Amino acid sequence: MDKEKIEQLQIQMQQWLYEVEEYVHHIPPTQLYAAVGVVLFTMILFLIICLFKRTTSNTILLTGLSGSGKTFLFYQLRDGSAHQGTVTSMEPNEDSFILHSEREKKGKTRPVHIVDVPGHSRLRPKLDEFLPQAAGIVFVVDSVEFLPNSRTAAEYLYEILTKATVVKKKIPVLLLCNKVDKITAHTKEFIRKQLEKEIDKLRTSRTAVSEADISNEFTLGVSGEPFGFSQCCNKVIVAEASGLTGEISQLEQFIRENVKT
Ligand SMILES: Nc1nc2c(ncn2[C@@H]2O[C@H](COP(=O)(O)OP(=O)(O)OP(=O)(O)O)[C@@H](O)[C@H]2O)c(=O)[nH]1
Ligand SMILES: [Mg+2]
Q1: Which domain of life is it from (predicted)?
Q2: Which homologous superfamily does the CATH classification assign to the domain defined by 59-258?
Q3: Torsion over CA of 31, 37, 40 and 45, rounded to 10 degrees?
Q4: From 244's CA, which of 96, 143, 186, 217 has a CA 20 to 30 Å away?
């Protein structure tokens, strides 16, 4: 009984196959090619979209020395106020959200993934975990207490700018001079020049020491010329902010330029 059913099914299938073949033979070849072309084109387009989606990241990293104001900025971006973050962070602070200033906006706004990496030297290696997915790095500098910390800040910045991921992926970097609400804050131009000078000194001492023991993955700038951020292969720009008063428009602009809606 079962065998009969299977045989019947086989005959039915063969008949269908024959009908399909007949049908295909009746289609003019040009129409057939066009149909195959359309299917192929759609598949390729779909693949490209998938690949493109995977490579456009929405992650922005907040880095910089401890006390520069990263956590304050994080909450300003998310909640529009800096009600938390008065203690030194011991863990990266991360969240995906629509920027507070864009919440009322009509139309599509893409959420951003912001990671605030603590500045404590023991926690800095955490940065490497997030670097591969970064669309941009914000290096926060305390513009008030800048001078006593300029060397340490330059060392950390040097470390970031010479990381293989940053160089190869040309991750844009924003030097964000924070705490400009204080009148004693240094200007962004002053901070940029000081950091360039410090990095220049570091570059000379590091290349002299490290011919054999290369700890940094890439060298910075053009040899024989004083260092300038414009020599970096990735974009390095300078801006100002105050995480306390919520003056963060330049930071938001950097985020929007690098995380497309
Ligand atoms: N005047 C002024 N003070 C600020 C501003 N932003 C932060 N501060 C002060 O700086 C302190 C440190 O800010 P945080 O945001 O906690 O610093 P952080 O960079 O997250 O520090 P770590 O978590 O240790 O890496 C805060 O307690 C504030 O008092 C600012 O824009 N203006
Ligand atoms: Mg913090």
Answers
A1: Eukaryota
A2: P-loop containing nucleotide triphosphate hydrolases (3.40.50.300)
A3: -120
A4: 96
